[in-house]
Amino acid sequence: MTLRVGLIQTRTPASHAASLAQLEPLIRDAAGQGAQLILTPEGCNILQKDRAQLLPQLTALEDDPVVRGLQDLARELDLWIDVGSALVRRADGKAANRQAVIDPSGDIVATYDKLHMFDVDLPTGETARESAVYEPGDRAVSADTPFGKLGMTICYDMRFPALYRALALDGAKVMMVPAAFTRPTGEAHWEILLRARAIETGSFVLAAAQGGFHEDGRGTWGRSIAIGPWGEVIGKLDHDEPGVLIADLDLAAADKARAAIPALKNARAFVGP
Prior knowledge:
This protein is of the alpha/beta class. The protein contains 7 helices and 16 strands. It has helices spanning 16-32, 51-54, 65-77, 161-169, 183-201, 252-260, 263-266, and strands spanning 2-9, 37-39, 80-89, 95-102, 108-113, 119-121, 127-129, 141-145, 148-152, 174-176, 204-207, 211-213, 219-221, 225-227, 233-236, 243-250. The longest helix has 19 residues, at 183-201. It starts with a strand and ends in a 7-residue tail after the last helix.
C-alpha cells in the first residue's frame, strides 16, 4: 500500500485568525496534489512567547478556531489531518501542547499531550522553559487509521528513543514528529536525530516544521522532512519558508526494514550499572 502524505511548513503568527489563513491554502495545495494524510507543525494554531498575551487566547481543543477550521477542511477535502499540535487550555485550566488526529468526517479520533518539556539554557544565551507554561502528558499514544497506526510525538520528544520504541512495539510504522525546532539545534541535530529514530524502529518519520523568524521574535529551523524506515530521506524542504512537502510512502518498506534488522525483537532486558 502506498500512502501519499503532505507535510505543511508554516511560520505561525501570534493570532488564531492569521494562523488559519496561512494554513488553509497550504492544506488545499497538498490536497490538490493527492495527499491522503496531512501533517501540520507544532503550535500551528498560535505562537506567542509572551505568556501574558498567549494564555488569555487559549481555549479548549474543541473550541480552538484553528482546530475547528482544520476539522472543516478534513471533512470538505475527505482526508486525514494530523494537527501536529495546538496550544490549548486543559479542563483544569492549565495549558497543554496537544496533537490531534482528525478523520475525513471531521472527528478528532486521537489526542496526545507532549511528554517531554524543552527546559534548556542554550549556548547562544537563549533559554526555554516549556514546563513554566505547559503541563506535560503522561502516556504514549498511537492513532488507528486505514493506513495503520500513527505514532504521535512532538518536537523535543525526538531526543527520547524509548518513546519511539514503545510506539513501534504497539504497531506504529509511521511516526509523526511535528516541530518548532530552534535554529542552532536544528542546524546541528534535526536531520540526524530524525533519521536515527527511523533506523532504530524501522519506521517512517514525518517531521513538519515551523520555519523562519516569527512575529513573536522566535526563530525556527524549518527543513520539513520525510524519512523512510531504512533511514533514507524520501523528501525534504531545504528552506525555512512556508510550503508543502509531498511524499509517497510504500508502507511495506517498514516490514522489510524490521525483518532485515530485527532490533525490536532482539532487545533484551538488563540490569543497569
